[in-house]
Design goal:
The chain has 230 residues and is mostly helical. It has one domain. Helix content is 83%, strand content 0%. It has ten helices and no strands. Helix 3 crosses helix 8 and helix 4 runs antiparallel to helix 7. The protein is globular, with a radius of gyration of 19 Å. The relative contact order is 0.24.
């Protein structure tokens, strides 16, 4: 049980900076304009969660088979080595985002201040969420790191699926937050969230990069300490 809790903290730490995903957040904010924003944003979040979780389970099963063929008996050393690798990858990813922060914000800066009503309906919101999540899954390196750590753990298959679910709940926290704001603020939500959108566009690398580096270093230190103690 203690190992599961530790792993839950590890995958949550990896998922937290990954959750600040401009593509998903901006697409969800687009759905706020127009009718039934709560319904559409909830359906968008659910579709992102479902596609990412199912994709993660399929990747995990395939990766588990590969790991079993290479390492028939996974030791605790392998598990902590995977955690160290995940932490190093997360920290390096944060550094890369920091180095490219100006280019990233310039590329994603809004070109117009004019707001348009979203014509997207509930079914289209599901398709949009599934499509974006599918594309993001191809280059989801933090997710791959988390999956590798989960595969290397001694958790049962249901436990591993739960850990993937925890990752994906953290991953869609901004989308859940948008739905909650829409439900609480009603018609005022659009203006409020548009202001947040502009801040996300202009500042997300400055937030994500240090967070990823700090969490990556913390994961690496955790793995090293556990490895030395094992």
């Amino acid at each position: 049980m203690q190992d599961i809790l530790s792993l839950a903290l590890v995958v949550s730490a990896i998922a937290l900076p990954d959750s600040i995903n401009p593509s998903l957040i901006l697409a969800d904010l687009y759905l706020v304009a127009g009718r039934n924003p709560v319904r559409r944003t909830v359906m968008f979040a659910v579709s992102v969660f479902a596609v990412t979780l199912v994709g993660g389970v399929l990747i995990m099963l395939g990766l588990a088979e590969l790991v079993r063929s290479l390492l028939p008996r996974l030791s605790s050393e392998v598990k902590y080595a995977l955690i160290i690798a995940g932490g190093v990858s997360l920290a390096l990813g944060g550094l890369a985002i920091w180095v490219k922060r100006k280019a990233l914000t310039d590329r994603r800066s809004p070109r117009t201040k004019k707001e348009k009503k979203s014509p997207v309906g509930g079914q289209s919101a599901v398709l949009m969420g599934a499509g974006i999540a599918g594309v993001e899954l191809v280059t989801a390196f933090p997710y791959f790191a988390a999956i590798s750590i989960i595969v290397g753990s001694s958790a049962s298959l249901p436990g591993k699926v739960v850990l993937l679910g925890i990752y994906n709940v953290v991953y869609i926290l901004p989308l859940i937050g948008i739905s909650i704001v829409c439900a609480v603020m009603g018609p005022r939500a659009s203006g409020f969230l548009n202001r947040i959108r502009d801040r996300v566009l202009n500042r997300w690398p400055v937030v994500v990069a240090p967070l990823a580096v700090v969490l990556g270093v913390a994961l690496t230190a955790f793995g090293v300490l556990r490895l030395l103690a094992s």
